[in-house]
Amino acid sequence: MGNIIDGKNVARNLYDQLKEKIDRLKESGKSITLAVVKVGDDAASEIYVSNKKKICEKIGINSRIFTFPPDIKEDKVLDLIQILNEDPEINGILVQLPLPKQLNERKIIENIAPNKDVDAFSYINVGRFVVDSSIKEALLPCTPAGIMRLLDFEDIDLSGKHCVIINRSNIVGKPLAMLMVQRDATVTICHSKTRNLNDICKTADIIVSAVGRRNFITKDMVKEGAILIDVGINRDSNGKVCGDVDFQSVKDVASFITPVPGGVGPMTIAMLMENTLKAAGAQSKSDEI
Length: 289
Ligand code: GUN
Description:
Elements: E1 3-4, H1 7-27, E2 33-39, H2 43-59, E3 62-68, H3 74-86, E4 92-95, H4 105-110, H5 123-131, H6 142-153, E5 162-166, H7 173-182, E6 186-190, H8 197-202, E7 206-209, E8 227-230, E9 234-235, E10 241-242, H9 247-250, E11 256-257, H10 264-288
Parallel strand pairs: 1-11, 2-3, 2-4, 5-6, 5-7, 7-8, 8-11
Antiparallel strand pairs: 9-10
Helix pairs in contact: 1-10, 6-7, 6-10
Guanine binds next to strand 4.
């Protein structure tokens, strides 16, 4: 059986380190604040936002949650973002996605000050890390950064490896491909129009699946010893949370595999917390100049 990558444990270790840093900052009279903007009452968003709030509390980051009704006008959201951009007490701003249809998601993201954009979704932050993710202050998108952190934790060297990513979104597939290329991997991005997906997967040293369909990755698609990173969040026939990978059968051929829950998921929030601290650090440096 392959090694199960314990994302909860990696996230916990990171929280301990972040909490130590935050405690030290508090001793010198500084505090860190994350603003979360939520529009409407999407059930999944409610859970994500409440989880983020809980983790903030756990490690000592102040959180401020701003909730708008689902039919809010775009100007009102932009006005709030402007206020948060200008508020020196706010270090990070996150607009929970998806947004209701009347709101222009891209316009709203682009209005967040880049140095407070802790999701790292804005053009300027994406462009920055695509060119060079080794810039220390670069804010990296949380799910891809969390996946890289898991691979690093297990000492998995990407150089020369064939990584197959089944997802082409701006949040997961595209940024992850860039981070993997920067580590000298050979990357294939697959999507709904890809032909011969099974054959491509079979050549992969690492498969990252973010499709959103349970049992999408089966044992016959996986090379012996491959590494499986499962970003999917689905429900099985009993209503239990599961990923895209048929875990029970694939774990026997994989060398490493992430479980769902407890794999990539905890890392996404952990990287958001790290970004918030990173953003605060960069802001305090720029204040000193
Ligand atoms: N909705 C689902 N995942 C995310 C995320 O990582 N950030 C934001 N802002 N919204 C999301």
